[in-house]
């Protein structure tokens, strides 16, 4: 399978005991104001800014002039870079960095103690075998650090072991008295309502439990950078394809020629292992100029591969890059593919991304041996650029 490792929906939750949450520059203060222990109430006001992102403003009542704090936030940023990659491995996170009363919230889960927080991590390890990947850690307030991540999980209790993918941000609140984390609030990229208990969040989990059959064959390596409600953004590593001309995105013209190359119709009669998916690629806006491709195993390189025996077949290195992917099941007819391409392109433009001309269709299954409702198909569009900031 692919190596799956994250709407810039940047939320700025409450900084504990806080001051107004704001994005800081590169210079971080080493001496930060500490609100007094005693305050009577706090008022939370949430509104959308001009960029349609959420801004959170926290104002406190009855504050006196605060003393100085000795919390080293920059050190905690470095700590999270080292500690969070161990979230689901045998080492685990360092619990001494958290208050005993730590508030954890995501759209479907909540805990209020470090014991409950660690129990939740343990249950996820058993049920889902998570693969957690940390993208960045930044200070986003005087007592607030935000992280961006991807988490890929397999639900082990279901026979088909569906893959659940979540990307988003976590806002870590710091207790200015102890210098420890006292809150952890998750925001998923794939839903709008990130409050607990969110029906959006529950539906997002449920719809990922559907059956997609992915053959146990090598695929091009990629990391998932972001998953929205409509598509995934992936970073593909370079790979090599054997290709020839096709007739249409849904067609199979030319498949026997490229398959013949890996079955031994090459200059050394070498047999090369089969991979998945089979790509058909259109480079023009009308999706008419089509090639059909089979990906070659990752250990192969252009210098060691045999030459094709047919003049119409060629080898090409795909340099990799950023791709948006829309997954769907069923038989991929030409009308359906074009509809999915328009849907994906429209979503990308709406989200401020810059899709390139053309698209690829990825077909993972043998149509003669796979029920149509379990087929895994994807429409992919290369992006000009993409940033997780």
From TrEMBL:
Organism superkingdom: Eukaryota
Protein name: SOUL heme-binding protein
Organism this protein belongs to: Melia azedarach (Chinaberry tree)
